[in-house]
Write a structure and sequence with these properties.
Length: about 210
């Protein structure tokens, strides 16, 4: 019971908390406790905590809550550097979002472009993608649009912003609406993320979990 209060204190709906319990997630981790209320408030969020500290649900739970209040088009785009991570993230969205029939779709290389385009044109709620394959879609025939997304998540932001993905990230940013809530999650704080910290103010929240470093 006490554990249930913990998640509910963060402003999450009961059905989401129930879903968390159903997958064995009972008590929020520090990055979840700190970032979830800020994301629900609408803040841009930069969160850092070591691998395994629950960063996926730190962004997935508030996104799912907002989506359940306003389902329309592709709602969130989550970028991540590897296909394996993409599938793991999409799984967590699907598991928690089951009661609202949340549809997440993974866009990574090594899969049929035409079929991917067809699935994207059906407007999944959440698209989880590696940058390269998403750009392939944006640069070929557009059967879908990212112009209505509400959330952009950079998972493993340190790796995505390391320079390796620069061209792709730029192409993707150009396809996104200016008005959106961006969330950056990372295991380490690199120089690029340090630059982002400079922006911290009324609309930008920064959290770094230092307990385990
Ligand atoms: P990170 O992205 O920080 O490396 P993940 O989000 O992949 O970590 O989470 C690692 C594992 O911990 C996942 O299996 C996830 O389901 C689980 N997990 C996340 N939050 C909690 C929580 N509050 N309580 C228990 N397990 C959790
Ligand atoms: Mg992660």
């Amino acid at each position: 019971m006490e554990q249930q209060t913990d998640f509910s204190k963060l402003g999450l709906n009961n059905w989401i908390i129930k879903q968390c319990h159903a997958i064995g997630v009972k008590k929020p981790t520090p990055i979840q406790t700190n970032c979830i209320p800020k994301i629900l408030e609408g803040k841009i969020c930069i969160g850092a905590a070591k691998t395994g500290s629950g960063k996926t649900l730190a962004f997935a739970l508030p996104i799912i809550q907002k989506l359940s209040e306003d389902p329309y088009g592709i709602f969130a785009l989550v970028l991540t550097p590897t296909r394996e991570l993409a599938f793991q993230i999409a799984d967590q969205f699907t598991l928690i979002g089951k009661p609202m029939n949340l549809r997440s779709y993974v866009v990574v290389g090594g899969m049929d472009m035409v079929e991917q385009g067809r699935q994207l044109s059906k407007h999944p709620h959440i698209v989880v993608a590696t940058p390269g394959r998403l750009v392939d879609h944006l640069e070929s025939c557009n059967t879908f649009s990212l112009s209505k997304i509400k959330f952009l998540v950079l998972d493993e932001a340190d790796r995505l912003l390391s320079g390796l993905f620069d061209r792709q990230i730029k192409t993707i940013y150009d396809a996104l609406p200016k008005e959106r809530q961006s969330l950056y999650f990372s295991a380490t704080i690199t120089d690029t993320l340090n630059l982002l910290k400079e922006l911290v103010g009324d609309s930008v929240y920064y959290y770094e979990d230092t307990t385990s470093n």
